[in-house]
Amino acid sequence: MCGIVAYIGQRQAYPVILKGLKRLEYRGYDSAGVAILNNGLRVYKKKGKVAELEDWLTGMDMHGHAGIGHTRWATHGEPNDRNAHPHTSGDQQLAIVHNGIIENYAQLKKELVKQGHQFNGETDTEVLIHFIEEIKKQNQCTTEEAVRIALKRVVGAYVIVILDAGHPDTLIAARKGSPLVIGIGKGEHFLASDASPIVEYTKEVVFVNDYEMAIIKADELILKNSSNEVQTPYIQKLDIELAAIEKGGFDHFMLKEIFEQPQTIFDSLRGRLDAGQGSVILGGLREYTGVFKEAQRIMIVACGTSWHAGLVAEYMIEDLTRIPVEVEYASEFRYRNPVVNEGDIIIAISQSGETADTLVAMESAKEKGAVIFGICNVVGSSISRTSHAGVFTHAGPEIGVASTKAFTAQLAVLCLMALKIGYEKDSIERKRYLQLLHELELVPEKVEEALKLNDRIKEIAEKYKDARDFLYLGRGYNFPVALEGALKLKEISYIHAEGYPAAEMKHGPIALVDESLPVVFIATRDAYYEKILSNIQEVKARKGKVIAVVTQGDKNIPPLADDIIEVPEADELIAPMINVIPLQLLAYHVGVLKGYDVDKPRNLAKSVTVE
Ligand code: F6R
């Protein structure tokens, strides 16, 4: 979604904001803009990427020590210069950047039009700043007071930062439902939608809470709640390094993140798994082990790739703990009036920890008495803070819009959880428990080996890059892997791709198979191996092109397949973490060969903070 950066302090604000917008561009990138206080309010905004804004502003006088910036992912109004942020009040005294949606903006706009306000674009944000202006005028109050009154009438989610030409030494920010981080420097403050624009200046940050407002000067930060009571800011130390948010010699963040996986999986297991001792330590689970042991059922809510991790977890948890598991799209769960009983466990999985659909699903389950367990990558994120307990995945910042390393880290953590609960519950034999712990410890090594397939996969990508459609098929633990492979391809290469359980093919999708259709089988050795062999034959009989991911040394599938990808052998429960690697690489190479910006695929945003 949209990204916000703001600065106030001794430095020049524009370079800080521009660099920050580039770091946040992965969140949304259809337009960008800045407002700087420089002898009055100056606002510059443009359709397109941040680089286009930068080119346009090169050579202009951008001096000023306070400013706000924005990179947009359109919700209300098409991407164009007018709808880009910042938006200004009618008197040009206030400028605002906003992430989120003001749901009742149409009503507010109607009232404002009656009062004589004129609007340049179609956005909800422009309405909000006019609304604040109107309240200021009617109540003869300060901007801070007007913001507070306005937000009481606003329905929706937001982070806003406001620049006031009348008070050049102050920024006003507020949050409800969307993230805002404030970096604390020496005589300066940095504001952003996540920590990536801040980390190179300071490691001391405050995560603003919902319904809080911040009044920020160069050397002062005042936090207030919605009743105007001053709150003590809770200052935390960031544990990310600058290198983690830079490309480090790779052509794209996506490739860097794919190649980071041996390390990120290792990090997600570090200090938690000791196969030699047969121990799993998950701090977040400690006080909840009893709750899980007693649970009648577990519901997993998530979106996109995280939902795919949830599907793998369903297989793992049922297999190892015998607790029934349901996996739901968070957006469906929230709105279909699900049965949630006191004591039910909800596991919410999210890389960003800010996905609005997941957040509202868990909030509604919490109200019904469920225990909420969060699996998140971003420390301090809304989902991690809304959970009763949880486990961080420790994959480091994921910048590529398509999720890769977050997925495998989620699987590693979910596997640890399933093993821990299963063992405590006595529903898994010690021998199998120890074998799986040992296998889990070997995953980083096996992923490293799978990454050596990169050149081979590039050749396969070259061969099939012009296909119109792809089908991805797998069974058992490899079914969610097929879904994830298809999602990666469609996001990055804009080729239509579908994932299916392989057996389901004959109930419909087989009609698509002809000599032009590449079918990717994830067919490593597991309990379904013989069955999937038959499915491959069914595709071959209809002249489909078979690309098969198989276990190293497989003798049966190569004679049937057009292209073979051999991955290291692993237990079926562990295999998804390894089998997904070639599928990530395939999507990456097809996207690059087709000339697309794989780090910023069209229409997508990294953290989806609107429902
Ligand atoms: C796909 C992808 C998305 C996210 C989804 C949920 O590559 O990245 O499908 O997985 O938007 O995001 P999180 O995990 O941040 O809740």
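qc> The two ends are 11 Å apart (CA to CA).
qc> done
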